[in-house]
Structure formats: structure tokens, C-alpha cells
Amino acid sequence: MAAALLFPPPAELAAMQTVVQVATWLGMRENAIEAVLTRIGEFQDATAVADQPCEIREIGIIDAVEWYSIAMSTVIFLPAPAGADPAAAPPTRELYPGEASKVVMLWRVCRKALGEEDQDPVKLWRQSDQYWGALNRGLAPGVQAPTGNGAGAGPAAFPPLPPPVAGRKIKISALVDQTDETEIPEGDPTEIARYREEYVRVMRGEPPSDHEVNDDQLSAIAYRVTVMNRTLYADYAVWTPYGEQIGAAQKFKVWLPVGNGKYQNVELKGPINYQTWLGCHKVMRTAAIAIKALTPTTADNYEHLIQGMVRRFPEAECWGLLYMVEKRARQHYAQTVKMRAERDKAAGALWAADYDPNMPWDFVWRWFCSAAGRAEYWQEQFLGPCQDWLGRGGSGAPLAPSDEIVAQYMPGSSGAVPRQDPGGAAWAGGAGRGRKSGKGRGKGRVGKARPPGQGTSKRARARQKKGVKQAAWQKSHPPALALDGGKKGEKKGKGKGKAPDGGQYCFSWGRCRDGACKDLAIGAPCPAGRIHRCEFCDAADHKSANCPAKPSGVTW
Predict the structure, then answer these.
(1) Domain containing residue 48
(2) Residues 129, 217 within the same domain
(3) Same domain? 134 vs 250
(4) Which of 13, 146, 275, 361 could anchor a disulfide with 8, C-beta 3.0 to 4.6 Å?
(5) Per-residue pLDDT reduced to its tens digit, 338-376
(6) Beta carbons of 546 and 521 less than 8 angstroms apart
């Protein structure tokens, strides 16, 4: 069986001169050909359909967006019922989906016959302002259908598409994605009503008030998925129940590597816990069902997937990692799965056999909930790191593999380059570190190579033994704190009040002491050139006097 061709072979295409020849090759029926020619004003009543002289260029020169509107507003003329008034307009019907597709292909084949670049009118229509301004899919209310009596009678009976209305713009960054600065026209009320009717049809009722999606949210997510052809994703820091009313309050804290071997507790925008995430997800579920991006079952299964991981790892430290991994799945990894499914479906792969190009994100989200998705994505990005974190006793913070790579190889990180001794051997640590086992020589230095000529004399061994004893005593007897925040007996001068980068902390600002900087706000520069950061955690968003890590013995 010969494979179906999208366009005629070059030799056959070159022989085509009229629109009827192209339409016949596409398999269009005579009533559809008559309707199209009548719609563009080129049908001659005294001539049979097969002999219509309309040339290919009459269609090939029409704009793509205009042709799509013509195709969607073309109607088929039906025979008048017996006894009908001869002066009345004949009955009509809209094109069937297969007929409409052939009308669109009629324009593409005509352009190819003229040697013009091939374009997709459907895609260009969805990218135009008219998509959001007015969709003319058939007869407008109160407009008489074309009678087909004479050339030019058809188009005169149809109203032209209204020009795009310069109205309010919607920012994607304020509703869907904080990193996307795209501005789109305000959603068409007809389209929004159609989306809401689709939800009611599927769910047999309206959504609860806290699951309701407002018009701007619905327009923005529909534009992102159908027009921009991007993933079904919304940032739950701005995509919230009740729209903008609580969006500014969505924040949570997470530990991130800062590049110097340390981690900083950073406040990021997003849901603070699973319950907050669930409220945002319910709104996404409503919108996804309305725009035919997800089925209710898929949306619910994804919700249960996240709920199961929260129950397995309820620790607060794990929530920050889970949200970042879950957000990354919807925003980025979903596109990878979609591209892989398209490629493997064409190759006949079994796992992508039920991939539907009309609902690609429903397939992708179902894959995330499947055993393959759990093993490939969730185990590597979340479950595995959390298990390792619990195996270490819950110290530090759980990190995804990508974050571990950043922490290990970022310039300045302690894990980037191992320290070297003068002889070239890698050191495992400094003096006094590591396990302490045995007595006498080498205590505290088990398994560590010594540089040549160091630590071998009798005095060196004595100093090392004395240092180990002092370190053990200091560990069991933490020093008391003086009223000024320093340790009792601490020598004044060099090194006191120094920041990790070598700068001098400003005590007047951090400790709220009398001085020029006592009442300065956070972020204000120091007139004396000192550093306005906390002397306990080196953070710049609070003063030392208000630091949660301030020792209890400090009274200022």
C-alpha cells in the first residue's frame, strides 16, 4: 500500500492550474469546493463545479491568518426542504473537521504550486491577536447566509473580522512564570466561557471556590500551552488560589551552596509546605481540565504522588528540596519526556504507544506517576538524596544531584580541589582533625601522610600530644562568653571581629551600640568602611543583635 502524501508529486503539482484540480487531488467533494469558491467570490453559477476556472494564484496570494478565518467561516449549502419559500436563504451547515482540514491544505498546496514557502495557517492563527480578539467560526448572529447567486455574493454576506482591540495586557510573569516577561492581550470572553463550559461538561459541576481559576489565570495558562507551545507549568509562588490576593505571601526557606564551602539559608518564593502547594495545585487542576491539557484522573494521580513523598519524608528540610524538584519536573523535564515520546512513538516504541499529540502533557504527567518515572526522575532527584541525608543522621541539608555538583565543583567550594602537601600527597585534613585512636605518637593523625621533615622530632611529638589534649578539654568545656560577645580571656587586637572575607564587622550597627551606625537600616553602607553583616552567621538581612544563632549568654 502506497504511503499517503501531504503534497502532490512535483510533476503532478506542476501540471495543476486551477483550484478545482488541487481540490480534486485532496479528495474534496463538489459541495465543499462550491462553498470555498463562493466564500472567496470566485464561483460562477453558470459553470459546473468541475469546470470552474478559478486559478491557483487566487488562493495562494491570500494571507495565512485570513485564509484560516475563511476556512472556519465557510458553510456547506443544503437542499431546500419541500415547500420552502424560494426567496428564503437556503439552509447551511458548518464544515466537518475533515472538510475544514482539507480547506486548509488547499491553501498550502496552492502556495507550494506557486513556489512560495509552506506555512501552517492554524499555527499562525493561534499566534495572531485575532485569536484572542474574535473567533469567527461560522455565521455571526443575525447575518444572512450567502445565496450563491453570482460571483461576489458570498463574501458580501459575511462580516469582516474585527481588528485587534488595543486593551489591557496580561503579564505572564505576574500569573504563571516569574521569569517570563511576555505580555499577552486580555482573554476573549467567548473563549474563557468555552473553557469553563468544558470543565462543567467533564466534571458535571462548578469547581469549589478555593479551586476556582480566574479569567487572567485561565487566559495566561491557555496562551502558554496552546500558543507558545510550552510545558503545562505554573510557578506556585504566583499561581495561587484567589489569584493575586495571597500571591505575595508565598515564600519558603531552603539551604543553597554559596560557593565557599558553606550553605546559606535562603528565602525563596513558593509554597511553604505541602498544604499550601496543594491549594495551588487544585487551581492548576481546574485550569488544565478546562483547556483540555489534563484529564481529572491524571491530575489526581500526580497529586497523590507528591502526597506520598511528603508522607515518606515529612521533615521540614526535605520540603524545600521536594518543591524545587517537583517544580523542575513540570517546567523543564516535562519537555524532555515529551520530545522523547514523540520520537519513540514514531519509531514504534511500546512505552509511547498511547502518546496523543492532542494531549501531550497528560501523557507526560502520567509518565511522572508511572514506575518508570519514579525510577528515572523521582528516585534520582528526591528519594535517593533524602535517603542519603537520613543515613547521615539528618545533618546538613538534602541536595539533588545537580545541586551536589554545584556544591562540589563551584569555584571556591571546599570540595572542588583537594589540598596538597609539599611532597605532593593529598591531605585528608588539617592538624587535630580525623579520628583519634591509640596513645602517643601520631594521635589524632591516623591515616594521614606527614610532609617530609615535619612532626618527626621529639619536641614536635610533644607539641602535638599537648595540642590534642587541649582540643579535647576545650570540646568538653566550652568557653564562657563575656558581656561584649567575646570569649573571656580573649586577647584584643588582631583577628577580633573579622569577617570570613577579611573585613571588619561594624559593632555599632550589628550590636545596636551607641555610634554613627546604630540606627542605620539593613543594607545601608557604613561611613567608616566596616561591614554591615551579622557577626554570627555572616548574613546581611539582619543584625547581630537579632540573629537566631546568637548564644544565650550574650546580653546585648
Answers:
(1) 10-156
(2) no
(3) no
(4) 13
(5) 999 999 999 999 999 999 998 999 999 999 999 999 999
(6) no
